[in-house]
Amino acid sequence: MTNADVRPAPPSGLGRRAVRGAVLVVGGQVGRIVIQVVSVVVLARLLAPHDYGLVAMVMAVVGVADIFRDFGLSAAAVQARELSRAQRDNLFWINVVLGLGLAGLAVLAAPLVADAYGRDELVDLTRVLALLFVVNGVATQYRADLNRRLHFGALAFADVAASLAGLLAGVIAALNGAGYWSLAAQQLTQVTTMMVLVVVRAGWRPGAPDRSAPMAGLVRFGWHLVGSQVVGYVGNNADTFVIGTRFGAAPLGLYNRGFQLLMTPLGQLRGPTTSVALPVLSRIQDDVPRYQSFLLRGQLALGYGLVVGLGLVAGAAAPITAVFLGEQWVEVVPILRALAIAGGLQTLAFVGYWVYLSRGLTAQLRRYTVLTAGLRIGCILIGSHWGVRGVAVAYATAAALEWPLSIWWLSRMSPLPAGGLVRGAVRIIVVAAAAGVASWGAATAAATWAPAVGLLLAALAGLAAVAVLVRVVPALGDDVRQVLAAVRQARRARA
């Protein structure tokens, strides 16, 4: 293999490989979600809201620096039609240097983070968590390389194993009275384990930096992407910052538990689908009918696989909170309900992100993200006048406004099948709403029963409502058949 031949998987059988990749990614994320849920259940009974609030304060501030550590270069490596070994090695060193630099900056800025929240204990916590930048900087291009070569199984294994190692470290630390430091131990153990596994599996060592390798296109792609990611991060974490500065660590801990119980597993399911969609869409972007068909099917799979489930969560928020967090976390119920609605609306718009990346529209993505971040921050600031619940409702309101805006904005610059996406989304929303109402009715009727029984009844009622709708409405039945056909294709691909 020559210096110019660090190639992605060939397009032959790309659809079959994409479906197989989707199965591996989803399988891996299911494993991570199980571990995440176990983590929430166990650690919620070992730690206090105050502990979660302190770590959330640090991550909301220093987390934005991790975007600069990546600098959009992982997506640039995956999206590139051709990537030489020299370019890959240069990207590796750029990410490592950025990670080291940002770690040093975080150490120096730790007192400022503590002053922003008025909590002295955040100084040491910020400095310890700065190690995340270094570890992730080393791992970035190894993950990108496995993604580019469609080695989804290796990535899934690394993610699951790392999550399990982090959980064990966090639980052991919490049982020994480490408090909020157990959450730091969980994070550091997880990313370190992941780094080791992807480095070993990728099987290459970076060469010395090569100034002759053409890097301008990759860096330009990353620069445009990082701009949109920073703005998006600020918008996505405005709720955490506002709650932390206005209401303190304990209320932020309550909000954070609702977010971690729902939005983190949702992101673990939804985000990695980009690992499958991006390399495929990047290679079929000139075949418009095929490109549009992939987007429509992708939305259906996300919608019936995730959005309908979020409808069930919204309806059964009370028994879910009691079962997974315990009765002492009852204040999380309205937060969880609002976040479930927000998550469903965000998921419907998620295919738009695939379009931006696969067609190299990162400059346009940055401008759109500025607009939506401003909208979300405005909603959150208004909602904060009604406390933590008001922030959660504001978060959902912003998501409701952003979804149609996303369709309109992207249809102006790409072959987006806007009409098909809107019609498909409406059908998904109808099914999710029916599931939510049915599960809420069952959960309310069983409010005095054991929480586990109430949760089971709510789930059965919601699923029954979905089954009836799919049976009665032909268009919904067609949607489900398309999703099931993709599942059958996945099984054949695995065989």
UniProtKB/TrEMBL annotation:
Location(s) in or outside the cell: Cell membrane
InterPro entries per UniProt: Poly_Biosynth_Transport
Main location (coarse class): membrane
Signal peptide per UniProt: none
Membrane topology recorded in Swiss-Prot or TrEMBL: Multi-pass membrane protein
Keyword annotations: Cell membrane, Membrane, Transmembrane, Transmembrane helix
Superkingdom to which the source organism belongs: Bacteria
TM region positions: 21-46, 52-71, 92-113, 125-142, 154-175, 187-204, 300-323, 335-356, 422-443, 449-473
Gene Ontology, cellular component aspect: plasma membrane
CDD domains xrefs: MATE_tuaB_like (cd13127)
Protein family: Belongs to the polysaccharide synthase family.
Listed name of the protein: Teichoic acid transporter
